[in-house]
Amino acid sequence: MDAEALDELAGQLHGEALGGRGLLQLAAATGLAAYAVWAVMLMPGFRRVPLHLQVPYVPSSVQQVANVMGLLRGRTGKTIYFSPSSLTLQVLAAYKQGLQPAVGYELNPWLLWLARYRVRRAGYEGKVSFLKQDLWKANLSDCYNVIVFLAPSVKSPLAAKLLAELPDEARVVAGRFPFPSWTPSSTMGQGLEQAWAYDMKEVRRAARSGTEGRAL
Fold this sequence. Notes:
Elements: H1 3-13, H2 20-42, H3 62-71, E1 79-82, H4 87-96, E2 102-105, H5 109-122, E3 129-131, E4 145-148, H6 152-165, E5 171-175, E6 186-188, E7 195-199, H7 200-215
Parallel strand pairs: 1-2, 1-4, 2-3, 4-5
Antiparallel strand pairs: 5-7, 6-7
């Protein structure tokens, strides 16, 4: 999906058609409120998660979402999304692009309720799924597209899980921060809007080559 289509989808989720300026105003307002909401209501839901794996709520931009969707254009199959950032917009964008079933994973009950409420209000109830599940306990063996908007501290243990569970045909797209030990197949965007795509077959081939090289 391009940025214009995502503008329209974001407008649906917020109950009105927002232009570029409106979206910027919305993002600014959301950003200012995010910390207060996190501290008062959202943080308690993550107290069971180890401190170094906690990821704060930071809204992603429409352009970031457009770049992620661009790296998944033409693909099919089950698509999952791990992030506390713009959960609803990302999952609906995947669904509208034909990446189905589209599933969002969220551990915090407040963000989960908000995602489901926005989808119901926009008329997409029953078309996408939002599950309250810890990403570390989710089975990824049937997932062919994985969207990740998580902090660098999470990338190393997540890389090990993805390598162990995803099929060779899977593609992982990271927004905001790349996987430091992986070489991307392609990228889109620049700066904070950049997204990186990793094809698991290539990632595994590189991992095997590195292991064999150290053995020699």
